[in-house]
Amino acid sequence: MSRKIKLGIIGAGRIAHVHAKSITFHIPGAAIKSIADPYMTKEAERWISDFNIPNLSKDYRDVINDTGIDAVLICSSTDTHAPITREAAAAGKHVFCEKPIDLNISEIRKTIDAVDKAGVKLQVGFNRRFDHNFMALKKAVEDKTIGDLHMIKITSRDPSPPPIEYVKVSGGLFMDMTIHDFDVVRFLSGSEVEEIFAYGDVLVDRSVADAGDIDSAVVSMKLKNGAMAVIDNSRKACYGYDQRGEVFGSRGAVVTANDTPHTGIFFGENGVVAEKPLHFFLERYREAYINEINSFVESIDQDSTVAAGGIDGLNSVIIASAARDSMKSGKSVKVLY
Predict the structure, then answer these.
(1) Which residue, of 120, 155, 176, is where some domain finishes?
(2) One domain, residues 180 and 226
(3) pTM of the shown model
(4) DSSP letter assigned to residue 323
(5) CATH of the domain at 74
(6) Which of 16, 119, 231, 292 is the most exposed place for a label (fewest CB within 10 A)?
(7) Nearest partner of 219 among 245, 249, 175, 181, judged by Cα
(8) Is the dihedral of CA 278, 135, 100, 51 positive or negative?
(9) Distance separating alpha carbons of residues 38 and 329, to the nearest angstrom
(10) What is the number of domains present in the chain?
(11) CA gyration radius, the chain
């Protein structure tokens, strides 16, 4: 690392805490100079103090307009992602933006244009690209360990549903949850989705239907490279955070299992007992969060291409929108980019 990259964080919620912890304790090539949130809580102020972040503000423009800051991490609410990204780009700041960039496709295109015009980098927070299991599947595809890719299967199930108030503003399951899986399909296959069929229902919590959403889904896709993919989602797996993947091809398959607290298994007269999966995304993807921010910092330092850029953010939202259209119509939908 030729120099220490100075970062600012906009938003001081749960994901901001994750990134701040990663940077402070695991990424020596970067330092956090400022953090801003109009709704700064006492709890946030405590962890900000613990991480020795020198500057606090309730105005995100204090971060954007600071000439001593090289890049910003946008960890605020989804509706603010696109406009703040454009403002940061216009100020010459590189941007790491949590997914999605926006729920509106035209807003995302507008944001990508602004970033390109400013000549700065934009990385989208698709952290699963940096997970050890999905990276192993990607390597199996790239190295032709499985031969020609035929199928991708992804299981992604949460341990419990989010609060209904969150569901109402999330953009729906496809935009909020499955969007990670859509990106993983693109990442593993190196291909875009050509056609999609999605079926969804409310099987966990009937109040989700009142909020206009679903909590369970199965999605099948035809990819432009000829392969196929299947995703299954649920907002509640009683046994924990279920994150599994498989790539299958002409020479075989590679399958990844869930991460667990340990691999010890108890064998007794009444059965065999193993640990449940790690509880939720903060535990399961802790290392991936570190890796994605480190990759962003390195791309700035080395002036290299980011690992998940604006087009990745755009195309995953386009696919999510097509999935929603398919579910509503009950028919397969061509994905138009």
Answers:
(1) 120
(2) yes
(3) 0.95
(4) H
(5) 3.40.50.720
(6) 119
(7) 181
(8) positive
(9) 41
(10) 2
(11) 20
Please give the distance of CA 249 from its chain centroid, rounded to a whole number: 26
Domain that holds residue 25: 5-120
CA 259 to each of CA 184, 185, 256: distance values in angstroms, whole numbers, following the listed order: 17, 20, 9
Same-domain pairing of 176 and 147: yes
8 Å CB contact between 182 and 326: no
pLDDT score at 296: 98
The set of residues, in sequence order, having a beta carbon less than 8 Å from that of 155 and lying 6+ positions away, is: 231, 232, 242, 243, 244, 245
Return the DSSP state at 72: E
pLDDT digits (tens, 9 = 90+) for 195-207: 999 999 999 999 9
145 and 27 part of one domain: no
Looking at the fold, whether 177 and 98 belong to one and the same domain comes out as no
Q: Which amino acid is at 292?
A: E
Nearest to 297 by CA among 83, 22, 18, 112: 22
1 pLDDT band, cuts 50/70/90, is: low
Element (H, E) at 173: helix 173-173
Q: Is residue 214 part of a domain?
A: yes
Reduced DSSP (H G I as helix, E B as strand, rest coil) percent helix, strand, coil of the chain, to 5: 40, 25, 35
Going by C-alpha positions, the residue among 126, 77, 130 that lies closest to residue 103 is 77
Q: What is the pLDDT of residue 2?
A: 64
pLDDT per residue as tens digits for the range 284-334: 999 999 999 999 999 999 999 999 999 999 999 999 999 999 999 999 999
pLDDT of 227 > 80? The answer is yes
CA distance 137 to 57: 42
- Which residues are paired to 312 by β-bridges? none
Residues 141 and 281 in one domain: yes
Return the CATH number at 145: 3.30.360.10
Contact (CB, 8 A) for 238 and 211:
no
Interhelix angle 42-50/14-26, rounded to 10 degrees, is: 10
Same domain, residue pair 148 and 282:
yes
Q: 3-class DSSP state for residue 308?
A: coil
